[in-house]
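INTERNAL TRANSFER SHEET
From: sequence group
To: structure group
Subject: Glycoside hydrolase family 48 protein

Please process the attached sequence and return the structure record in the designated field. Keep the field labels unchanged so the import script can parse them.
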Amino acid sequence: MFRSLAARAARTQTFASTLVLGPAALLVMAACVPIEPTGTGAVSPGGPTGPAGAAGQPAVAAQDEVKPPPAPPAAPEPPVKNTGNVYTDHFLELWTDIHKLSNGYFSPEGIPYHAVETLLVEAPDQGHETTSEAYSYWMWLEAMYGRVTKDWSHLDRAWANAEYYIIPSLADQPTIKGYSPRKAATYAPEGDLPQDYPVALDSRIPIGVDPIGEELKTTYGPAPIYGMHWLLDVDNFYGFGKRGDGKSRGAYINTFQRGPEESVWEAIPQPSWDAFAGGGPNGFLDIFQKGTGFAKQWKYTNAPDADARAVQAMYWAKKWADEQGGNTSVDANTAKAAKMGDYLRYSLFDKYFKVIPCKSPSCAAASDYSSAHYLLSWYYAWGGAAPGSGGWSWRIGSSHNHSGYQNPLAAHVLAQFDPLRPKSPKAAGDWATSAKRQIEFYRWLQSAEGGIAGGATNSWKGRYDAPPADAKTFYGMAYQSAPVFSDPPSNDWFGFQVWSVQRVAEYYYVTGDAGAKVILDKWVAWVKANTKLKPDGTYEIPSSLQWTGQPSLDWNDQTQNFNGSDKTFNAGLHVKVTSTTPDVGTTAGLVHTLTFYAAKANDKDTQKLAKELLDRMWAKFRDPKGLSNIETRKDYKRFNDALHLPTGWKGKMPNGDVIENGSTFASIRSKYKQDPDWAKVEAYLKGGPAPNFTYHRFWAQTHIALAYATYGWLFP
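Return from structure group:
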């Protein structure tokens, strides 16, 4: 079982995969379903930029006009010293560590790696891949740097790099104009196990109308979708390259696609632009999809929590820059975040735009907003034909909603903060509904102890089966203790708690929402009861969680309960802390949450705990590249896990590694044997002790820096 070390480190994500058979089959299949690739063919430049936006928003250039970003500076600019606040100084030290090129956080192109270290398997299956998560943390880091130093050039560089590398351009979405909101996709069921794949498309199942497709087209023209794909192969480790060229760095790739039991150890990496340059005669497509006559195609998957984090970062950047007198680059990048938020609305809808609730594949196809759940779901995805393979394109949302992905602050500012209000006429209203709905979701999922349980789905088992008769529902969607994936269970990692509730705490800090305070009061009390400050100067916070029961009621407009004194509310839904950890990334998320809560609630005891954790982290875990812990990776025994392939299927990775039944995680990734740390893993596979590693993950190091900076800001 791939458990807590990897899950703790970077949520084991499984994202939608999407495949198409040919021009008539406008997709698709989404899989496992993480947490977020290239034929040739000329694409003429010069797409529409769309009409003028909301007041105060500069126009955003079409993606095919994006210029290459500036290279990273040879060395970081010297940070401000002796600011008068030790925590702000710690932030500046860490910012310098992250930007020092010799420390290895960035590629030569200036792309943030998932981690400094290369031998790392979790959601990304190699350390020098990167994710939209890393990009969103980078933006957040540079927003805070601008607040501290008044230097906004680094934030501008982050957005320029994101637009060039992780937001697919028009050249990467060449047939996007072929999309029809009235024929958004073709249904394919999700399987329970990797062995259940490939699955067949079924055009008999009704698909709803995409309710925002025409609005987005009216607003921006037939432009490419402006959202981040979740996963890049920065160093071209696998050799797919961009758009099938086999050599370009920063290549869009995907991994998970085959049901909730497919862990990273069973996933098969594939290019997001499948030009049949690797895999078998049909590239990698017929591993996942039954059929004949496969078309070369492109397909991307968005991790909504990352795009929402980018919006969250730009809210603070705009606020802080305006307090300093304003900054034109911040204004321009805020407009880009607003546009990203416009397209992010795809995450608010059922996967196949079916009505909610839906308890059978034959349930009604929605023609309006009756397919909207208004939550930040696990993904949205889109794709289409490669040049020469047709002119079709498709889009899907997601039916699966995890508490760990919600971001009520992002929804609130997209609805209420003028510089971030998207251009589309319905967008602000959609996000206003979403902000309210997300807070309700947290409350519905809050356990008797205070932790936030898993989530809910409109598509039981990923194929619209009828959920168990006793399953409690949220606006018609059935409760799930571990939405989306179960190897490991998706909500057993405490990191999802701090990532998600941190956003609730920021939302509470900004709005003072009494409902958010009810949720936070109970959650903070639970965390404090399970956090230990030891006499030797160390500490322990929750790590792994175990859930029992379910919410006590079916939640809808008539059954809201934000009565914090109601001891019977969700009395049958429980969480137990089964292990603890001093993990620095998760601790930073906890401190960040406690700091915002303490500042708004004037809670001195919580403030003291946040300070103690910051001080102990710095004293115990500081190293030349940031802060880090030693990890023992027992899960690396799974380098020898066998892969499941369709009977008789045989193909090759670009480097010649054979893919067939009997292949293993390691055998189709033979380049891992060239890694300087491979000897430790090899010895373990031969019967030696589990290897120890010290990792510097980009998300963790930036969140640590942000925790120090936020404490220094709110408690000067």
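Handover comment: DSSP finds 15 helices and 21 strands in the chain. The two ends are 45 Å apart (CA to CA).
Transfer complete.
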